Amino acid sequence: MPQPPSSPPPLPTTAILPSSPSYEPLRTRFFNARLPAHRPRAILRPTTTAAVAAAVRHAAALGLPVGVRSGGHNFAAPSLVPDGLLLDVRGLNRAFSYDARTQTASFGPGATGEALSAQLAHVGRFWPFGHSPTVGAGGFVTNGGQGWFMRGWGAASGWVEALEVVTARGDVVVAAREGEHADLFWAARGGGRAFFGVVTRVWGRTVPMRRVWDATLVFGIGGGEGFEEVLEWVLETDEGPSPRYGVETAVVTCWPDRGEEGARDEVVSRELMLVVNCVAWADSLAEAATLLRPWAEVPPELENRLVARVPVKETSWEELFKAQDQLNPTGNGERWQCDSIFNDPKVPKKQLIEAIKPAFCDLPTRKSIGCLYISDYFPDEEDQSMSLPQQYHISTMTCWHDPAKDEEMKKWMYDVYERAQPVSCGQYVADFDENHRITKIMTDKALRKFLQIREKYDPQEMFTGHRGPAKALEVLGRL
Predict the structure, then answer these.
(1) How far is 449 from 463, CA to CA, in rounded Å?
(2) Do residue 272 and residue 401 come from a single domain?
(3) Could you tell me whether strands 160-166 and 198-205 are parallel, antiparallel, or unpaired per DSSP bridges?
(4) Does the residue 13 lie in any domain?
(5) pTM passes above 0.85
(6) Is the distance from CB of 280 to CB of 214 less than 8 angstroms?
(7) Lower CB count within 10 Å: N or C terminus of the chain?
(8) Grouped pLDDT means (10 residues each) for the chain, 479 residues
(9) For 231, which DSSP code?
């Protein structure tokens, strides 16, 4: 930890202290009501890069660790550092700009997917923002960015041209693929909670905006007995006739009454739904229908499980965001946990499906869901720290309301993902929780490189988020 000087300077006058009435509402401004009890010494809400630099210098002088929160969507809330400074960057550098000459958009780390979609639409452009409307760009980019149409276009990290970063010394630098801080740029894109600086502005490459369309298939899979055959067909269709560009596909398992109002958590129905949703990027209905044609016909042997079909129709970002909010409701005491794997692409599909079945079919509460997102993305560890193959992002999100159920829910999640671990090559860094399960978030080579760069920029460990992911090298025996 940084060592404080003998006479440390006072905190900025804008700091929100535990004695303030606004402290607790700000401390708990997260998507998840299930939070660690950590209490930062102060919360700062900078609006300029200079204010961030000053805050980081104050933290260094006081010997305090720093946590950074943009949208507050990380399930484990790692930005809540005990007795440290919490930088809430939601209001930082809020001005959006677009350079028509370079076709590059610039925005702050607190810009949400919902805000970016509207701002980009105003200038007729698109950048692959997050699926959730309230995910902040700062955390989204540093986690690598599983944005829209990732299957054909790759992660949002590949669309980032440059980042403005405040380092642990309080210096303001611009990092890009070339130049003095190319190593910082490499580490930022995929480092997630382990990153050792504060992203204060993002420059992203854009493309012309097009219309969005979707189609949906809903299968009844009973208590899970139809899971294997339906999912195997989905994965075969994705690998075969489904176009790679301009189409994305996600599979969700859920209980049919999960959308009903109220805080009831108990599962009543034993008839699981498996929903296949496909979104297309196209200028016309005819083009969208062509892109989604492989999903128009269901094999005869699955027809008896098909309970609903929504044909190709035009949708909007507003409607797509609304659907995401319905998947992950918040604001009424919802306590969430997420665990996930990236599948090992070498594992046969049948073995994969068998291993993940409990995580998708034994959902313990009414609002819990299983999700398989077809990312089909294989990043280059030389280009960015986001380095694990991402053929499928396989996750389960459990939701409940009673804190007394926390340990029960945690054990359920641990058990089903320990069963899935043999078919995994690691985990999406945004889902990592060192207090739950230690697993890889990068390739071993990339993680070693990341830790070396971290030592260069933050030798005093002002940013402590790397400690959990670093344990993977030791725990998994790869030192």
Answers:
(1) 17
(2) yes
(3) antiparallel
(4) no
(5) yes
(6) yes
(7) C
(8) 54 89 97 96 97 94 95 95 97 97 98 98 98 97 97 96 98 97 98 98 98 98 94 95 91 92 81 97 98 95 97 98 94 96 98 98 97 97 98 98 97 98 97 93 96 97 94 70
(9) H
